[in-house]
Amino acid sequence: MPWDYNKKEYEKQAKNDPIWHMERLINYGLGNEKLNKEELKKYLPKLKIPENRREFLELILHEPKYSK
């Protein structure tokens, strides 16, 4: 549970602002939640996150598939 919002306020804000919610998940931890790959691709350019995390997420999203 987030330390700066009560559960009801957090859920309301997360529903209304998916970019805010994704930033919080990346910056403060996912807990049991997972990032949606398609949403991450959509919002990554708009996220206010540290550059090293952005680079890591871009690497994961665009990882080439190697065949053996």
What does this structure look like?
There is one protein chain. The chain is mostly helical and 68 residues long. Helices cover 57% and strands 0% of the residues. The protein has one domain (7-61). The chain is built from four helices and no strands. It starts with 6 loop residues before the first helix and ends in a 7-residue tail after the last helix. The mean pLDDT is 83.
- Helix and strand content put the structural class at mainly alpha
Number of helices: 4
* Sheet having the most strands: none
DSSP summary, beta strand count? 0
- The run of helices and strands is HHHH
**Would you identify the regions where 5 or more consecutive residues have pLDDT less than 50?**
none
Beta-strand content bin: under 5%
Distance separating the two termini: 43 Å
Q: Radius of gyration, Cα only, in angstroms? A: 14 Å
Shape summary: elongated
Q: What's the overall average pLDDT, rounded?
A: 83
Q: Could you estimate the helical fraction of the residues in percent? A: 55-70%
Number of domains: 1
Keywords for this structure?
68 residues; 4 helices
